[in-house]
Each structure stands twice: as structure tokens, then as C-alpha cells.
Write a structure and sequence with these properties.
Number of domains: 1
Low-confidence stretches: none
Strand order of the largest sheet: 3-2-1-4-5
Shape: globular
CATH class: Alpha Beta
Helix content: 55-70%
């Protein structure tokens, strides 16, 4: 995996909200695109909230070609350091976003998000935004 998609980018793609995101997915497909198991959990929460069978099917089709990375011990250790750094600097981000950022750092991949304002607080995290790219 070279690129890890944040939840908001997945939603843009699933709902066809951004031609730029869809084009970037096609362009970078060979480079390896994946998601964190944390992102998958967030997406399934959204499906449960919607209660839509059509949305569930769309999510399953979206996830099929992607690598899904399990949040493992290495990611957990990085999470501890990232959360500590954010709290010490007085710039915390949401707990799930902290986990996703830590997971991307642990894997050494670029996190693709439309929420650069929050994620840019995480030191050394490589970021990309395919919305409006």
C-alpha cells in the first residue's frame, strides 16, 4: 500500500461526489491503495445508521479491490506517541482520526484526506488531498 484513504475520501468515491477523487483512484490504483480497519469500521457505522441495503452493497463493491490494513501492535505503539504529542502541543484531534493517522505513520504510507487542517497537526505524517486535485 502506498496510499491510505481517510473516511471522507471513501465517501466521496462511493457517492461519486468528486470526479477528481475518482480519477486519482484510477491513476494511483497500481501504486497500491488501501484503508485502515478503523476507516472500515467508521464506514460500516455509517451504513448501520442509514439502514440502506443499497449503501451496504455500494460499500462492499468499493472495498473489494482495496487492501484493508489491520490496526496492529505497531500502529498501537505509534498511536500512543502521536496522541501524547498532540496533547502536549494542545492540538488534539478526534480519537478515530488519531488512530488513522498513527496507522498511516506506522505503515509509512501517505494518508489521503479532505481534512488536512486536522491531520496536518500530526508530525511527519505524509498527506494528500485528491478533492479538487
Amino acid at each position: 500500500m502506498r496510499f491510505m484513504l481517510d473516511t471522507n475520501i471513501c465517501i466521496y468515491a462511493i457517492k461519486n461526489r468528486s470526479a477528481e477523487v475518482l480519477q486519482a483512484l484510477r491513476t494511483h490504483e497500481a501504486a497500491g491503495i488501501g484503508v485502515s480497519s478503523i476507516t472500515v469500521a467508521e464506514l460500516f457505522f455509517g451504513i448501520e445508521k442509514s439502514g440502506s441495503a443499497r449503501n451496504r452493497l455500494a460499500l462492499q463493491h468499493f472495498l473489494e479491490p482495496l487492501e484493508i490494513a489491520d490496526f496492529d501492535m505497531a500502529a498501537a505503539q505509534v498511536y500512543g506517541a502521536v496522541r501524547q504529542q498532540l496533547e502536549l502541543s494542545g492540538t488534539p484531534i478526534g480519537p478515530l482520526d488519531t488512530q488513522i493517522a498513527a496507522h498511516a505513520l506506522a505503515l509509512g504510507v501517505t494518508l489521503v484526506s479532505n481534512n488536512l487542517r486536522e491531520f496536518s497537526r500530526v508530525k511527519s505524517l505524509q498527506l494528500a488531498n485528491w478533492v479538487g486535485a
